[in-house]
Amino acid sequence: MKPLRLLHLYPRRMNIYGDRGNIMTLTRRAAWRGLEITVDSLDVGEARSLKEYDLLFFGGGQDQEQPRVSVDLQRHREALIETVEDGAALLAVCGGYQLLGHYYQPAEGQRLSGIGLFDAFTEAGPTRMIGNVVATPAISELGEAPIVGFENHSGQTFLNEGARALATVRFGGGNNGQDGTEGCVYRHAIGTYLHGSVLPKNPQLADWLLEAALRRRQPDARLSMLDDDLEQAANASLAHRFS
Amino acid sequence: MRARTQLARALGRLAGTASRTLGRGSATSLPGVVGLKLQPELIKELRRGLSPVVAVTGTNGKTTTSRFIGQMLEAHGMPYVHNQAGSNLVRGIATSLLQARLPRGEHRPAGLFEVDEATMPAACAQLQPDVVVVTNLFRDQLDRYGELGRTARYLQDGLATLPATSTVVLNADDPLVATLGHGLPCRVVYYGIDDTSVARAALPHAADSVIDPATGDLLDYSAVFLGHLGHYRSPSGRMARPQPDVALTSVSLDGIEGSDLVMAAPGHQLKIRLGLPGLYNAYNALAAAAVGTALSLEPSRITAAIAETAAAFGRVERITVGNKSLWLGLIKNPTGANEVIHTLALDGQPKHLLIAINDNFADGRDISWLWDADFEELLGMSPLVDVAGTRSADMALRLKYAGWTGERIHRHESLGAAVDASLARLEPGETLFVLPTYTAMLDVRRLLARRGHLMDYLA
Questions:
Q1: Cα(B30)–Cα(B397) distance, rounded to whole angstroms?
Q2: How many CA atoms lie within 13 A of B125 on its CB side?
Q3: How far apart are CA B343 and CA B315, in angstroms?
Q4: Whole-prediction pTM value?
């Protein structure tokens, strides 16, 4: 089987904090199973055939970077949605998550268009949600281990009726600090506000994405188990401290 | 001095004494809190007893740069008032002012204040410094400041309150800092590295990408020294690195021992042997020398002072423990951590490592930055690593993904146990290299002091 292909969207503009840890987690966990992943990037003004990618990653960015990215992203709207519909796995964190919804309305200035992959929208709120987060997965395939991470956002994301949340917040703010939801899931695409980085200490998320990517190539494939002692220790350490 | 100010000063000092007597510790900000409550204009009033006043701000290097400047002032026989390590907010500045002796008459002491970036608007308005130096702007403790743009705005707001008679010293190699010089009525002195032989191959992963705010274009770099510091230019040419007034024309790094520098300033050239390692300290020395030039200090004394400066408390420090040593290199954000890592990796020699990561408020509660720092660079030199701190589990995980296998990562429940276990593994004469975050560094020092290994411990 040829290597799995990962596309990192706007890596130079949207790499606010520790997002590299997510890419590292995916490539290492694949390598530990004898699978290879090649990583490409897509930046403003560039072209790629998105459907050739099995995994996509879209990180967080600073407010001043997002308008330019939002405009460029529109060119890829159809291809991105098609690729996810076709079964590709995707992880979007913070700013990336916001831009994959319908729109992001900042406190000042123009509304930024998203692409509507996630049936959600974001509006700047009055306070910044900053702190550790412990949440319970809302999707049965993700198992029972808590999802842990660190959030830092003033945007409040609201899921439309029918959209699925990634998790239910036990400690922290989550999407909007009001309805107890964190993140959003559509097909095998995950949007979340969690940094940390999020995948290293939530190996079940990483493997869910990896397995989806693998199955796009080999429908019967299954990932072998790994020794996740250190991952679980990091997860438990946070879960116990903040619940 | 006005009556109200005198009262505020007296009561503030009393509060400090009471606090120490009651065993509540060094109370580095209580006097200031008390004093400011009584006299909100305290800093403005007391500042009149100082000349000149220097403010040091920026993400990395405030304390070390201040240390260099302090040595220079001493070399010129100038006493100075300084806020104690770690107290760089308004209340800390106020405390240092009201605890100082401010003699009347001509021989006023100087003022040397480290200022936290978010405190710059208040500090500049009240202190009205004669010289302000901005070292750099990096992602640091994002959970405290939100974003780089916001931090830059704090600095801008602070600088906007300065009178035209002040001088602003800016790092030309940092595009985020250099732009602060635009439109300022005061004198601007730029400093930077001209010797491109110490440049890296490309913008490192941990570097913040910098855009030209007018066009949204990413900046192009012809040389990168550290993080996003280097020689840059926007594609349109509208934004480019300004020519430094004070520049390092030659830099020779000498591993963890230090470096040899040649510095060019208007009218003279300085040759400096720096006893602190890495490019990041070369930048700190350069910043201080640029301040010295702005203050018209004597070049030979600037050189001597820099050469004599020992590392500031805990930033980079060597401590003797019996017949072994401990080397402490503070880490708190990806670029700073990379510089420490890179410095350790320079000589290619094996190193015993202890990494202590806390996430207390002063460390920054968000430890995502660990994933942006290049710990991989130490893989070949440290087969085994000890890990401690409140976030030891995350650090252990980081090391696993960096290439260390599980049995090569020793996680300890307490910092004391970690220090003991690591030191026990050393042969006599060997050094333990400790990479702590800020409060972990304080914990290590406190531990060693209790055991009698530290002479200069600040109780």
A1: 39
A2: 13
A3: 14
A4: 0.79
Taking the Cβ of residue A16 and every Cβ of chain B, the question of whether any pair is shorter than 8 Å is answered with yes
Three-state DSSP state, B228? coil
Residue B113 three-state SS = strand
ipTM for the predicted complex: 0.96
Distance (Å, whole) CA A190 – CA B192: 44
**pLDDT tens digits along A32-68:** 999 999 999 999 999 999 999 999 999 987 777 788 8
Among A50-64, B79-93, B103-117, B286-300, top mean pLDDT goes to B286-300
Mean pLDDT, residues B346-361:
92
Residue among B143, B372, B398 whose CB faces A130 most closely? B143
* Contact assignment for B149 to A63 by CB distance below 8 Å: yes
Give the lowest-confidence range in B140-149, B277-286, B307-316, B422-431: B140-149
The secondary structure of residue B363, as a DSSP letter, is G
Say if the Cβ atoms of A200 and B365 lie within 8 Å. Answer: no
User: pLDDT digit string (tens) for B132-176?
Assistant: 999 999 876 555 445 677 888 999 999 999 999 999 999 999 999
| Of residues A25, A196, A227, nearest to B401 (C-beta) | A25
A8 CB within 8 Å of a chain B CB:
no
- Count interface pairs A-B at CB distance under 8 A: 100
Q: Which of B221, B368, B398, B407 to mutate to test the interface with A (most CBs of A within 10 A)?
A: B368
Q: Between chains, do A21 and B368 touch, taking CB under 8 Å as contact?
A: yes
Q: Are strands A120-137 and A167-171 parallel, antiparallel or unpaired?
A: antiparallel
Q: What is the pLDDT of residue B179?
A: 93
Residue among A13, A20, A227 whose CB faces B372 most closely: A20
Q: What's the token pair of residue A150?
A: 């660190």
CA angle A50, A77, A8 (to 5 degrees): 45
